[in-house]
Structure to design on (458 residues):
């Protein structure tokens, strides 16, 4: 028996490869098929099944392309209605894979069709649980993603039953393999690890502690941040199907002259610059939004850009294909093309951003600049600069109206990635006096500026 977690940081997503006696199964594959087909070929195995834990909302799964390519059936849990052929497994149904067995555990709660897959080893012992979005390390899946067709409270009640009758009854030594890790918007505050055990979660996961159904429902529905708007579109795509990824990449991979880029922008296209922040700041096409490939790219694209928007890309040379693929992973397929030659190929004046380190922060504050913190609420609550203003990047640009466009702002996040994205958006909304902080909040602390832990309401 062989199990491998294939983790993708920019989506905080884990797919899984399971193999026994030359037969393999894939759980929750990403849009591209090569990692799974390549791994099976490298190991001399045949992919026999493609399992889906639920209709994913945060990415477009690769199940359809993979099934088509390798001839393996797509397995969903009970009640999954699709517009393509799948096998709807019943609760407790088992699938043989070489000398091991995969048992379906129907665990509604995150969604009605959610299922976990229990791996039984060669001796029939419970070995690992592939929990999808039912159970994470330190958290559980959010119950509010059905867009009004079922209430959060109803789904949370289902989750209570699923956890206590299907998951918590498993032996403590069963390995837990969740579908997501830290940074995913599929949970409230997922832990740092991507693997755990059932026993560890029984001890430390807040949702698995002793409580009534009513207490559980309140705990998991309280404090959930609104989901990115693209979640509902991706869930629809995963139910209805999509074009093959090769065709999407081909259609989106068009080199554009500077003039052609400007014409697309004139017609409403958004310029997405995917270079690292410290490269972007030195020169970028005016009007660009910077979301670097070197961070949680797909998550922030899905949070800040409408999925229906037409995009034109500015990338590091050679990164065009990677950018287009990573956009397609979350359903962003309306790409007009990319600027040929990158930012250096642009034929008009480039814009820039001024950044400061710990030595430059205090002089700017003394000149009257307001510190703007764009981190997440939990980061702000843990510690923030005294007197700082707070506006999470996830709330851009809709809440920028509360800021003064004529005032100077020093913008920071945790490390410098999100602050550059924030500044690029602010520039597009008329803010002109903006300074980025290298190294983010740690730099402010190094500068000796006073901090506090109480939330401050703007």
């Amino acid at each position: 028996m062989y199990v491998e977690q294939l983790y993708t940081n920019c989506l905080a997503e884990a797919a899984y490869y399971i193999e026994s006696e030359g037969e393999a199964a894939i759980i929750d594959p990403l849009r591209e098929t090569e990692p799974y087909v390549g791994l099976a070929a490298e190991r001399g195995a045949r992919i026999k099944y493609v399992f889906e834990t639920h209709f994913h909302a945060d990415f477009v799964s690769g199940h359809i392309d993979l099934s088509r390519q390798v001839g393996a059936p797509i397995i969903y849990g009970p009640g999954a209605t699709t517009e393509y052929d799948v096998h709807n497994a019943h609760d407790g149904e088992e699938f043989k894979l070489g000398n091991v067995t995969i048992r379906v555990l129907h665990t509604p709660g995150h969604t009605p069709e959610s299922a976990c897959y229990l791996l039984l080893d060669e001796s029939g012992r419970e070995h690992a649980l592939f929990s999808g979005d039912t159970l994470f390390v330190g958290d559980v899946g959010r119950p509010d993603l059905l867009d009004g067709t079922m209430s959060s409270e109803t789904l949370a009640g289902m989750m209570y039953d699923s956890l206590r009758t299907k998951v918590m009854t498993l032996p403590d030594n069963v390995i837990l393999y969740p579908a997501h890790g830290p940074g995913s918007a599929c949970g409230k505050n997922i832990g740092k690890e991507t693997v755990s055990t059932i026993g560890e979660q029984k001890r430390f996961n807040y949702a698995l502690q002793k409580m009534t159904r009513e207490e559980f429902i309140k705990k998991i529905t309280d404090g959930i941040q609104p989901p990115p708007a693209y979640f509902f579109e991706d869930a629809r795509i995963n139910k209805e199907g999509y074009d093959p990824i090769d065709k999407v990449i081909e259609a989106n991979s068009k080199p554009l002259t500077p003039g052609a880029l400007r014409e697309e922008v004139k017609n409403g296209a958004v310029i997405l610059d995917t270079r690292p922040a410290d490269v972007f700041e030195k020169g970028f096409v005016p009007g660009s939004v910077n979301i670097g490939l070197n961070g949680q790219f797909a998550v922030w694209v899905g949070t800040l850009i409408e999925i229906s928007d037409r995009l034109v890309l500015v990338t590091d040379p050679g990164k065009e294909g990677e950018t287009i693929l990573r956009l397609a992973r979350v359903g962003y397929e309306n790409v007009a093309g990319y600027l040929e030659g990158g930012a250096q190929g642009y034929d008009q004046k480039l814009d820039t951003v001024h950044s400061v380190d710990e030595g430059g922060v205090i002089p700017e504050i003394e000149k009257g600049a307001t510190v703007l913190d764009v981190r997440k609420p939990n980061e702000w609550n843990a510690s923030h600069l005294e007197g700082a203003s707070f506006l999470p990047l996830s709330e851009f640009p809709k809440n920028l109206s509360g800021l003064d466009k004529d005032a100077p702002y020093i913008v920071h996040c945790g490390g410098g990635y999100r602050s550059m994205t924030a500044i690029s958006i602010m520039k597009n909304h008329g803010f002109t006096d903006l300074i980025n902080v290298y190294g983010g909040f740690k730099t402010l602390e190094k500068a000796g500026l006073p901090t506090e832990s109480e939330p401050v309401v703007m």
The chain has three domains: 2-232, 243-345, 354-452. The chain is about 30% helix and 20% strand. The first helix runs from residue 34 to 42. The mean pLDDT is 95.
